[in-house]
Amino acid sequence: MYQIRPQIYQVKVTLQGIEPAIWRRLLIPADLFLHDFHKVLQTAMGWENQHLHIFMRGNRLFGPSDDEWKQNGRFQDYTIVRVNDLLRNPGDEIVYQYDLGDNWRHLITLEKQTEPEPLEYYPLCVDGARECPPEDCGGPYGYQEMIAAVKDPSNPQHKFFSALFPDGLDPEYFDLEEINEILLEDDYGCLLPFDEEDE
């Protein structure tokens, strides 16, 4: 039986408020549901799925359905919304916000649409730069303060952050092969909330 494969979107994901930029370039099925795209983003960026998240397009919000969000007339359950419902033409953008306290905003830009390669598995990370910040580090400002402290032995917080990260903290680290290996796992390798505590 002939099966039509969906178009592939090439999207660039850029974490806002950090210089030099932390970014990923992904190839994803255009018809991927947003709740699955969330999982792909968690793995590709290096987050641990410990916090609330939401997608935004203009004044519209898309995320997990719960009683609080249902009261917002601009909100829609993201389990029934696909990426190509929001991104249709190259240059179109949406925002993915993770950890509403630290306020990590990711700008997602549709770069181009392509046909799927017959033997390729999607989603796929094809490029990127720099390591994702640690969870709960205080957002872009807190992260950059932390990096400065780790690099400078004279910084009053150097000893504290060095002890917090005994193996070091390398903001330039980026392992494309590792990301793609994890994306092959169930749920695109995204940790389910509280997984580690349940083990």
UniProtKB/TrEMBL annotation:
Q: Where are the transmembrane segments?
A: none
Q: Which SUPFAM superfamilies match?
A: MM3350-like
At the top level, the lineage of the source is Bacteria
The record places domain Plasmid pRiA4b Orf3-like at: 7-178
For this protein, the record's InterPro entries field holds: MM3350-like_sf, Plasmid_pRiA4b_Orf3-like
Any idea what this protein is called?
A: Plasmid pRiA4b Orf3-like domain-containing protein
**Organism listed in the record:** Marinilabilia rubra
